[in-house]
Amino acid sequence: MSTSDVLQCEQHGSVRILRLNDYKTRNSLSDGMRAALAQAWRDALEDDGVRVVFLTGSRGFFCSGGNLETLSKLGSPWDVHQRFSNLGSWLLPLIRYPKPVVVGLNGPAIGGGMGLALTGDVIVASESATLVSPFFKVGVVPDVATMYMLPRLLGMARAKNFIFGNGVMDAATGRDLGLLDEVVPDALLEEAGLKKAEALARGPVRAMGLAKQIMGRSFESDLEGMFMYESLGQSLAMSNDEFREGVNAFLERRKPGFE
Fold it and tell me: Model's pTM, two decimal places?
């Protein structure tokens, strides 16, 4: 487990906390932040003691998205293409992480920062949190998987209306639309997010990871394909200790101990 100048990493039981911590740039996705996130996800993937990841920001800001100072210095279309292609080194492992990811949305998530927030499996938000789509204000297309995640979570029409309208969504609206699982007072955000992460960590995280990966294919697969994925996933799920513990706990009328 590594901690950098811009990303704090700590272990809280079986929960790995990743805290964006670059207040000077409002936790922007700078080169340093991108490199730190890539390393953090590699560390979490390789550590069997990590059952859930809790990703949050610091000092009232989640993430301000792309670092415009850096982006404005890119010299050619090829440079831009290379930079955004390299997003995959940390963003795809985050999306495909085979265990639950809880996001603690502690403040504004702007542009690519919104895309980062939406990769969470469960999002707990503070009352002052916002999701902001400013892409068209600076003449760029949405990035950081926003165009992949948002239509799937909101539906195409709502996603288009939000993006084309340079939308700002408050936490209460996000909860009402189903984007956010829970909204809590600002001072209780980390406590609530960790509580959610700890509850998931006590569950069958391998089965959760399988379900997460299968659901990620639901929009691109036909019915027969999804049945095949379910069959393969169930074959794996029912062959490990989580299944045996769950069944035994049910028959013995006790709570399962998946950890």
Answer: 0.94
